[in-house]
Amino acid sequence: MTSRIPDFINITKKNFxxxxxxxxxxFFSLFSxxxxxxxxxNWQSWVCAAFIVISFSVSWNKINKVLLFFIGGLFLILAGYxxxxxxxxxxxxxxxxxxxxxxxxxxxxYLEYKNAKDFEVFYLDHKQLRCLxxxxxxxxxxxxxxxxxxxxxxxFQQIKAVQFHKRHLIIAIDQVLIRPKELTSTDLELIYSYxxxxxxxxxxxxxxxxxxFKIENQFYLHKFLIFSPVIVLxxxxxxxxxxxxxxxVSYSCIVLMIICPFVIYxxxxxxx
Length: 272
Hints:
Elements: E1 8-13, H1 18-41, H2 43-59, H3 65-81, H4 83-86, H5 90-99, H6 103-114, E2 119-125, E3 128-132, H7 139-145, E4 151-155, E5 159-164, E6 169-173, E7 176-178, H8 185-198, H9 206-239, H10 247-271
Antiparallel strand pairs: 1-2, 2-3, 3-4, 5-6, 6-7
Transmembrane segments: 21-37, 66-82, 88-106, 224-241, 247-268
Keywords: Membrane, Transmembrane, Transmembrane helix
């Protein structure tokens, strides 16, 4: 009697994200504490900032966002204008405005931590792929705080090739490479067995993986070239602009920092 070939494969992790929620709770608690301690810098500033933050929180879903920010900005301008009369310290005001809002993140993350459940980190069948993945470097910080938000879905038809390594998996989705996260070596073995049985052709498309690697490297090179003027001109301001004291050199560099990335972006777009 032959064993039945599985129609799908899924990888589930127990209490997934609990460590991430704990880390987020620690950070948010520390930031909130800084916001609360602002009262000792200047209690008038703290009251003013706390009033703005709480008002924003209460009114967020009740008032148009543009109007809300306009009112908040107007309130800040008035607070700055009458700061001497009200005894408001601008530094204390902004410190509280910066850190006090984190207090509202504590409860939802605590509930997430308390109610941590099993979570499916990988699923594949002949119709779709679901996996945890980040596609931008800037996403890694957010992923560390809440990885569940990075569960991505792809059609099976989008999968062009699959490549296995000892510790990670690379999947070519059209012209993009994704690297599913939270998979152990045992998980990779299970996925490999499934693909080898159900869609072995995906393991043979090494050329597609190589082409996508080339596209990916070109993308990161373009990003570096676009922001290279900032990297180059910042030391120029420091050394030749006398750390900003030479106004002519400093402002010229700042203007170039703004203009050059756009010019480089346009040139690269034309070539590609």
